[in-house]
Structure prediction request, 309 residues.
Amino acid sequence: MNEEDDGIVESNGCDGPGLAGPILIVGNYCHDTIITRSSRTDTLGGSAGYLVNVLDALGVESEVISKVGPDFAYRSRVSHPPVVVERSATTHFVADYTGAEDEDRVLRAVKVCDPIVSSDFGRARRSRYGIGLAAGVAGEILPEALERIIKLCDRVIVDLQALIRLIDPVTRVVKYRKLEDTEFYGMLDRVSFVKAAQSEAKYIDLENARQKTCVIVTNGDKGSTVYIKSKEYHVPAFPASELDPTGAGDSFLGGFTAGLYRGLSVEKAVVVGNYFGALAVSHVGIPTLTQFQVKDSDKLFSGNDCRLA
Prediction:
């Protein structure tokens, strides 16, 4: 992040008309099994699935670099076909929300597809992209992949989970490591934004990271907080009836990215992100966004307030 970006909070993070090409999304599609006290649902998952869902609804052009196995069950539901790795299986996560109310969900990997490597970017149809999204769920984005995203894109947004999650080789439960203990840490000053859920924020040295990049911490119905150098501010959430928190952060990123792409300031783009995050928790799995909801979001892009129906 350059010195001139110190004013990124007040100015546009990305100016839509000046962007070179569409948005590049990097992360594997997944099979998700979501278990709550009242239901068990099998659905399309993966950060890429939630991101494309928002961007497609808003008419924002994007490309996806993603891998699945030949068992991928949702080919007809994705507008951007993934690479099929014949010798592998589609990544499959089980998200169990049946623990105590004060406990986080237990996320377990049943199957894991191949990670995304530098050579996979040969599929990219352009030489430059306006915004790149490192949107892995757990471990599929390697340092070499993030390097390629940085080189190809004018601005880079990283979901912290893509960098700090590990899958325990014995229990298959998703664990966390500190960002400072990874190869990714040295790349922070070349990343425009890092999005972290509140539960993940303890795995990043926030005071140090905010000197290198803009950090956005999302916290469900408590809203989102933006940190950049010595400045910070809070953006309230939209009301929502929560059925399934899976994908709320991904949907936030979709709305936030669309806002930046269309030339909104960072603060206004976070408002758009909060709106789509609230819509996501009201559904189990990837939500079907209605024309009314998309039309309602137009008020946010024009700088006006918007209320969820």
